[in-house]
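Changelog-adjacent note: as of this version, every example in the card shows the full chain rather than a window. The one below runs 104 residues end to end.
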Amino acid sequence: MKTFVFTSAALAALTLTLAACDRPTVVAVPASSPAVVVPGPAGPAGATGSTGSTGSTGSTGSTGAPGSQGVPGYQGADGSKGEPGKPGDSSTTVIVTPPAPPKQ
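Full-length structure tokens:
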């Protein structure tokens, strides 16, 4: 804004100097009221900007839930039959007596 006022004063001084060629004199022009800035119409739209860079990779997801329990296995095969036992000693006698009745 100061530049505009200075330019206006310089242009006025130059005009006065050129008009009075027979008696050149430098005349100080008093500054008039401050210049009013009036905005003009909007200019054309600018060019489209370039594409932005690719974003960073997202964070790792959470661990899944535990799986289901498996099916029970099959029963194993029967074992082999054992060897026959040895014959007992016929000279020993075992006597079994019933217990005594409880006392009242």
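Structural remarks: The chain has a mean pLDDT of 78.
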